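The pair is listed for reference:
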Amino acid sequence: MIYIKPSFYDNFKCIASKCTDNCCIGWEIDIDEVSFDKYNKLQGALGDEIRSKITVSEDGSRCFELSENDRCPFLNDSNLCRIIINCGEDAICDICKNHPRFYEWFPGVTECGLGLSCEEVCRTLLHDEKPFSLIEENDGEEIVLDNEDDVIESDTYIFLSAFRERLFDILFSTETDFEEKLVKSLSLTGNFCNEQIKIKNFNNLVEAYKETEPIDEQWTVFIDGLGDNLQDILKIEDDFKKSTNSDMLYSKILAYIIYRHFIKAVFDESVKERVCFSVESVRFIYLCDMKTFFEKGDLTLNDRIENLKNWSKQIEYSEENTDYLIYGD
C-alpha cells in the first residue's frame, strides 16, 4: 500500500488547552462501535457518567449529549479531556483520535491529510513561505487490483494525480505572481476539459457564500459584513498586496485545498468543478484577509489562521456546503 501525505503530516500534534479554539466544542462527537463496547464495560463513576451522556443523533448514530455552550461533557475547565486523563488516549472515540486527520482511499493508495479547521494545522501550513510538498511511503504490501472497476479507478487516480502535480508546478513557480498562477491553472484545466473555464467574481462569490448553511451566527454576521462593505474593501486591494506580500502563502493554501478536494474527481469526473471550487475558495479566503486588513490596517499570522480556519469549519466540514459550492443547486 502506498501512502501519500503532506510533508508535515507526521509531525502534527494537538496543542490541547493551548488552542484558542477547541474541536470538543460545537461539534457532534460520534461514538464508534468499539468505543461504545468499551464504555459499556468501563467500571466506576466515570463509566457510569459516560453511559449517562450517550444519546442518539438525528441520523441514528450514537453520540455524546453536549453540555452548556455545546461543550463535550468530558471537557474539563482547562479544556482537557477527562476520559484521556483517567483512561488514556486509547479510551477515546475514533473521531477524537483521528481529528483533524482525513483520508481518501483508492486501489493501492491512501491519501492522508490534516484538516484546516484546526488552527495548529493552519499555523503549520502558513508559518513560512516554503512550497507545500507531499511525501510518499510504501509499506511493502503487494497491491492487488481485484476487478475491472479497481483497474479503471487506479488508472484514473494515476492520471488525475499527475494532472494535480502539473497544477502544483504552476502554483510554486517563482516566475509569476499569484493572479497569473490562477489564470494559468484555469487555462490548463480548460485545455484538459476541452472547454473554457469561468469562475465567480468577488460579488458573485460573496452571494454564493451567503447561500451556504451557517454553522454559527458569527459566520452569518461576517458574511453580511463582507457583502455590505465589499466595494470599499476592494478599493484597498493594492495597498493590501503591497503590505502583505503573500503570494506564496495563497499558493500554499490553494495547493492544499486542491490536494484535499481535487482527487475526488476520480469518483465523479468533476475535474472542472473541483478546480473552480479550489480557486474560488482561495479567492474567498483572500477576500476575508482583505476584510481584516480593511478593518484593522494590518494582517497578522493569527488573523490569517482565524480566517482560514473559519472558512474550513464552515465549508469543508459541511458536506452540504461543499457540494453546493462545487456542483451548484
Observations:
- The first helix runs from residue 33 to 41.
- The radius of gyration is 21 Å.
